[in-house]
């Protein structure tokens, strides 16, 4: 029965069947990557230096265009001071999304979707790479970058508590502007 679907879930169900909904990831070197391939690239990157200081960051930004809204979700694995591996996933919604809360909420939903693909099993696999080197200083954190700011002059400041709570509920460390660079810089450059 269609009416028993919670608010917001109908969009997800209809978009999954739409050609506008894409599951493939890409970066400057590769196109058409599955999430499994993305995860393999992250594992390979971390195994290259298991004593590293790793931050796995996921964030989404959007841009309203003439007849659609483009959402870019970035996944970045950074070994602080030693390099990064990154990719994006693009989703086009075939309409102009002009309401800020709706757009910010969908940005976060797309980030949450990717974060949820990092199951406990997958997170443990990544942690196990650095675990033998913990006493030599190896670290691993996972962050959700949210394209909002808390400043009084920022139009998104009223949504900070709601969005931060959503990311925290997933067991991921929330980052907002100016520290949410995966959403506000990396993903942003591909929304144009």
Please describe what this structure looks like:
This protein is α/β, with parallel strands linked by helices and 192 residues long. The protein has one domain (2-190). The chain is built from 6 helices and 6 strands, in the order H-E-H-E-E-E-H-H-E-H-E-H. Helix 2 (35-47) runs parallel beside helix 4 (120-130).
Q: Gyration radius, to the nearest Å?
A: 17 Å
- Taken as a percent bin, the fraction of beta residues is 25-35%
The rounded distance between the terminal residues' Cα atoms is 39 Å
- Spans of at least 5 consecutive residues with low confidence: 1-22
Helicity level: 25-40%
Q: How many strands in all? A: 6
Write the element-wise H/E pattern from the N-terminal end onward.
HEHEEEHHEHEH
Q: What would you call the shape?
A: globular
Average pLDDT metric: 88
Q: How are the strands ordered across the major sheet? A: 1-4-3-2-5-6
**Biggest sheet character:** 6 strands, mixed
Please identify the structural class as seen in this structure: alpha/beta
Number of domains: 1
Number of helices: 6
